[in-house]
What we know:
Elements: E1 2-9, H1 20-35, E2 37-41, H2 44-48, E3 54-57, H3 63-69, E4 77-80, H4 87-100, E5 105-108, H5 112-133, E6 136-140, H6 153-159, E7 163-167, H7 169-178, H8 185-193, H9 197-216, E8 221-224, H10 228-233, H11 238-246, E9 251-253, H12 257-270, E10 275-283, E11 288-293, E12 303-307, E13 317-321, E14 325-332, E15 339-350, E16 358-363, H13 369-373, E17 380-384, H14 388-396
Parallel strand pairs: 1-2, 1-3, 3-4, 4-5, 6-7, 6-8, 8-9
Antiparallel strand pairs: 10-11, 10-17, 11-16, 12-13, 14-15, 14-17, 15-16
Helix pairs in contact: 1-5, 3-4, 5-12, 5-14, 7-9, 9-11
Amino acid sequence: MKKLGVYQILGPSDCNDARIPDYCRQYLQELSQMIGIEIYPADEKEFCQQDPKIFFIGSGGTAEKFSKVYRCAKGPYYLLTVPAWNSLAASMEILSFLHEKQEKGEILHGTAEENADRIKDLYTVAETKRKLSRMRIGAIGEAVTLVASRVNRQVMKERVGCELMDLDIEELIREYEAGGYEENEFVKGIKARSGNPDETEKALRVYGAVKRMVEKYHLDAVTVRCFDLLGAIQTTGCLALAILNAEGIPAACEGDTRSLLSMTILHELTGEPVFMANPSQMDTGKQEIIFAHCTVPANMPDDYTLTTHFESGIGVALAGHMNPGPVTVFKCDESMERYYVQNAELKESLQREDLCRTQLRLFLPEGTECFLKDPISNHQMICKGHWAGRIRRFFSD
Length: 397
């Protein structure tokens, strides 16, 4: 089980109830069971080496103690409370003190379930930032025609920490010609649905080629300038990217490195497969957008059929069907200062002949005008579930 140490502060024993230490111990155990992460009182050295910085204010009479120890760690400071023993009152005193010191802080107060959810968000955000700082992402041919979809590498390295590695599309073609791929559950499911074994075999060889390059160069995520494959090997990367995303390897198309970064962040924050899609039609009055693309992750739709890549009419792509439900739409740039996120509702999956193969009609309760006035390039990231709160915390903390 993963672990998270908190800095526990209790009031003076001579004026506090003797039951408080046991109460606090049981409260942390309850939170641990809810989150699936062991939460425990850490010593100062251990506490300062991890994130997030959560001070467990177990009772009243703790403000002065906090004022003497809080500088052992950099903020923001999170104050975990219990619904008894004057914990909330003490935390309000502490938060006012922090604000006077021009420090960021937040009180975590509510039911055990609510506090568990907040701690899980904080932990996931911190873990995502740690992972990103060590990541290597690869571009097998970076975007040329997408003029607003290439990251500034220096800015990304400074703000995010991850490294972008350039790889030659010709190496991918050589790997394709060498042949071979893993017969995993996604491959078997696709073969079972295929009505064109020869085309499916070619598309799966692209998957094998990209996967070998991912492993060879120790990549955590990858994008492929897939239109280069049309003339060279007469197939597309749609199926390869669909399988890689289902395996938990963020994989973007068209050499779009900015979308790859967004896709990686969204996947790490949510654990969900991510669909990189084009906004294809918008109804501002109804607050709806139709998103479509040919690379939906193989494990994201509730059902799918196999068809061809939309623009070229060749290769193999998934036409996914997803049941109505909550989704999140997200995009960011590498500055970590500009991002878009909104919780949305999937109304229906469509089957239009004039759009890319997987088509989703979404209702966006906060409106759609931002896409017309200040878009972050064209591709947007979509995953199941409502995650806007966690994503906003990622950018604000």
